[in-house]
Amino acid sequence: MKDRKRVIKEKNTYRPYHIIIILFLFLSVFSAAMMYPIVWMICTSFKSNAEIHMNKTQFFPTEWTLEGYRTAMEKAPIGNWLFNSIFITVVVTVIVILTSTFIGYVFGKYEFKLKKPLFMLLLATMMVPSQVTMIPRYMMIMKMGLLNKMAALIVPSMVSTFSIYLAKQFIEDIPDSLCEAAKIDGAGPVGIYWHVILPNLKPAIGSIGIFTAMAHWNDYLNPLLMLNDVEKMTLPLGLVYFSSQRSEDLAATMAVATMIMVPMIIIFLLFQRQFIKGLALSGMK
Amino acid sequence: MKNNKFVAMVLIPSFLFLFIFSIFPLFYGLGISLFDYNPSNSVQPFLGLANYKKMFQDEIFYKSVKNTLIFCIVAVTGNIVITLFLAEIISVLPSKGMKTFFRMILFIPCIAPMVGTALIWKYGIIGTRGGLLNEILKALGKAPKNWGLTTWQMMLIIIIFTLWADIGYNVVLFTAGIEGVPGEFDEAAKIDGAGPVRRFLSIRLPLMGRTFAFVAIMTMANYFQMFAQFRVFVPGGGQNDSAMVLTNYIYRTSFTQFNMGYASCIATALFLIVFAVAMVQNRMMRADWSYE
């Protein structure tokens, strides 16, 4: 493995410098363009609506004001939305990590009849778009009396087929001899899971955790279907609701958007190494 | 290992759960599609196949199928070409810090919820007042446009937005894939006189088979479900339904017009289309691309 890395490095140094500089400049311009909408959002959130409604528009605010943020804090229950989003994301992510590693362990380490067809069935459910099943799911949640409750978003998400698939791929790489050794030492199936599988699964858990947390933190469709009351909304749904209520108040809308997105971006920048590693691992499996 | 009792104890509840929330809804939906189903009515008259008959005469349905397919084909192809290209460039950069930096920047839009970033684009890029596109038109001396009233341009904007919001993932996956390809093969091809493009197409791309298949399948599955940006940009389907896709049409029919029977019928059609595409993709991806 070390040799391999060295070869790649050497290969890179052969490239002429002017090509690398051109590529670097291209990437810089491209990245700057990618950031334009985010910077626009932040700038607009600090403008006054009077300035936004003037015909002559400038990118940066002529006068920086917190007017938008004041309206946002007064008119939008951001605290509630934030709490709901955090609660749902954390609960679902913890449950999914447990269920997917456990089911993945059974598929990765045990031999049984119908293993292949059952796993194929699992993968097949992954391909079904959520819009196909959303009407029946809505009816079922209504009949269970969970509409407008956080449980409506948590209960159906407790088992994730994609995460089971990822977990299984990682668990297959754990040597069987470790499991056998634990078995000889008298560990039962759950003991093997707890003492052998889980401790060796840290990268996979990171990967599954990031995927699950991001999917639920950013989800719009399910909250849109299941939640009605303004205080019960999650952040993405709340943002859309707020912008539709105050379509003329662009500064406040962008203030809400900034408050929702910028903290997440900062968290990402702080932990980007773990983030990117976790995501990259999923594609290698 | 073998332990049938334990396997059964884990899998029976798991598959029961999966059955309730993933498989049963498919049949439930199929059932609903045979009724004139409106949850606020007390009677739900049985229609038989009338909903399906109606669907095959529904012009908006055909438009949504066409738009969904166009969106998926153009956006998935665009995504894979652009992300492979960017990943290639990034992997050439000489320092690790630079690689990390660009990967990080390209990933930032993925962190934010798509409804949020779509809202930014709705005002900041295609907005009539101060939107970037109209500012550019103004600078070129042309009349500003109301982009919400355009047809194919709106679809193109939604595709470009989706690429902007989503390329970060695949850039990360592809750079990891490229770094995982052993350098010896590339080196050997170079000695044999293969140019950089040739080496990419014949050596590195086939050797990334697993990553490539994963990305292609996941991106396709994801893009069929895209909904948030259509809801923000064109909630009613856009001018002449030119940007109506199946997901949005199902939502509009079921949750704003409360015609759940007919919506379930369209949902069944979406399921069949996705199923067919998955089968084709499965065939194509079966090629053996492993280098081990």
Task: Identify the notable features of this structure and list them briefly.
heterodimer, A: MetI-like fold, 2 domains, globular, B: 292 residues, 13 helices, 73% helix, disordered C terminus
Q: What do these coordinates show?
A:
The complex is a heterodimer of chains A (285) and B (292). Chain A has 285 residues and is an all-alpha fold. Chain A folds into 2 domains: 2-71, no CATH class; 76-245, MetI-like (MetI-like fold, Orthogonal Bundle), CATH 1.10.3720.10. Helix content of chain A is 76%, strand content 0%. In chain A, helix 10 (176-184) packs across helix 11 (189-197). In chain A, 40% of the residues are buried. The model of chain A has no long low-confidence stretch (mean pLDDT 88). Chain B has 292 residues and is mainly α. In chain B, helix 3 packs antiparallel against helix 10 (209-224), helix 4 (96-111) packs antiparallel against helix 7 and helix 8 (183-191) packs antiparallel against helix 9. The radius of gyration of chain B is 23 Å and the shape is globular. Chain B has a single domain, classed as MetI-like (MetI-like fold, Orthogonal Bundle), CATH 1.10.3720. At the A-B interface, helix 1, helix 2, helix 5, helix 6 and helix 7 of A face helix 1, helix 3, helix 4, helix 5 and helix 7 of B.
Draw up the topology in text:
The complex is a heterodimer of chains A (285) and B (292).
Chain A: H1 2-13, H2 17-45, H3 49-53, H4 67-75, H5 78-109, H6 115-127, H7 130-143, H8 151-154, H9 161-172, H10 176-184, H11 189-197, H12 202-218, H13 221-226, H14 235-245, H15 250-270, H16 272-284
Helix pairs in contact in A: 2-15, 4-15, 5-9, 5-12, 9-12, 10-11, 12-16, 14-15
Chain B: H1 4-32, H2 50-56, H3 59-92, H4 96-111, H5 114-124, H6 132-139, H7 152-180, H8 183-191, H9 196-207, H10 209-224, H11 228-233, H12 246-256, H13 260-284
Helix pairs in contact in B: 1-13, 2-13, 3-7, 3-10, 4-7, 7-10, 8-9, 12-13
